[in-house]
Write a structure and sequence with these properties.
By secondary structure, this protein is of the alpha/beta class. The chain is built from ten helices and nine strands. α8 runs parallel beside α9. Bound molecules: 2'-O-acetyl adenosine-5-diphosphoribose. 2'-O-acetyl adenosine-5-diphosphoribose binds next to α10.
């Protein structure tokens, strides 16, 4: 697949702390659309009209219909071999008394459905937040009842619910950001998988890890903004590459 496989595996086997920083590309082989590039969501839709607080104020039903569609697609999707390889690796590393963690920009729950926990920097598709009382609840209803008839989902307090996603112009939850930077600061190896690495502050994890001394391994069929910071770049879909690269025992 790539000439560096044995070097990558050797670096991974030695690593005591491994972090996976994932983006939309890790779910592409599950049929979940990416944001940028051919077929990306932001080619068909303008983010500021659908994924921003002002869009929600202007037309909450339109925004909800967009997320309802994405929730339905995500519910139909299944974790692919990339998600499974990461989850199995995380379990194996932890069982060996080492550390492995996932920091994702994805709002789908495919890492969890493969059996791993993840820090979700950009929120979660299957959580809703009340615009009135702020309460966050898990919610897997899709289609969301009432949307077809023009009514918005409501909290028990009567407030309008919104998807618990970090929209353009909003701040990431500082607890998530702190957790992500904490993990990456100590990583021996950082995998950067399926992200164009253009959305900040998430993209800042890569230079941060590099400054902290991590070996950075990119898995992405395309060149990205992070590529020149990586010790290894694996130009292949993650569902194909990760099962091979992560077939490693701790050394
Ligand atoms: P992007 O859509 O920007 O980038 C997806 C990346 O995945 C690209 O670099 C592709 O080359 C790569 N890719 C495609 N298929 C792949 C595959 N099978 N295996 C591996 N990589 C593949 O997605 P993100 O970087 O995640 O924010 O986007 C970052 C943020 O921008 C998202 O979290 C979202 C969006 O606006 C919010 O929702 C707040």
């Amino acid at each position: 697949m790539v000439p560096d496989v044995s070097l990558i595996r050797a670096a991974v086997a030695r690593a005591h702390r491994v972090v996976f920083f994932t983006g939309a590309g890790v779910s592409a082989e599950s049929g979940v659309a990416t944001f940028r590039g051919a077929g990306g969501l932001w080619e068909a839709y303008r983010p500021e009209e659908l994924a921003s607080p002002s869009a929600f104020r202007a037309d909450p039903l339109l925004v909800w219909r967009f997320y309802d569609h994405r929730r339905q697609k995500a519910l139909q999707a299944h974790p692919n071999p990339g998600h499974h390889a990461i989850a199995a690796f995380v379990a194996r590393w932890r069982a060996a008394g080492r550390s492995a963690a996932i920091v994702t920009q994805n709002v789908d729950d495919l890492h969890e459905r493969a059996g791993a926990d993840a820090v979700h920097l950009h929120g979660r598709l299957f959580e809703v937040r009340c615009t009135g009382c702020g309460r966050v609840t898990a919610d897997r209803r899709a289609p969301m009842p009432g949307l077809d008839g023009g009514s918005l989902p409501e909290c028990v307090c009567g407030g309008v619910l919104r998807p618990n996603i970090v929209w353009f112009g909003e701040h990431l939850d500082p607890r998530d950001l702190e957790a992500a930077y904490g993990l990456v600061s100590k990583a021996d190896v950082l995998f950067v998988v399926g992200t164009s690495a253009v959305v900040w502050p998430a993209a800042g994890l890569v230079p941060h890890a590099r400054r902290a001394g991590a070996t950075i391994i990119e898995v992405n069929p395309e060149d990205t903004d992070a590529s020149d910071q990586c010790a290894f770049t694996v130009r292949a879909p993650s569902g194909q590459a990760l099962p091979v690269l992560l077939d490693v025992e701790p050394a």
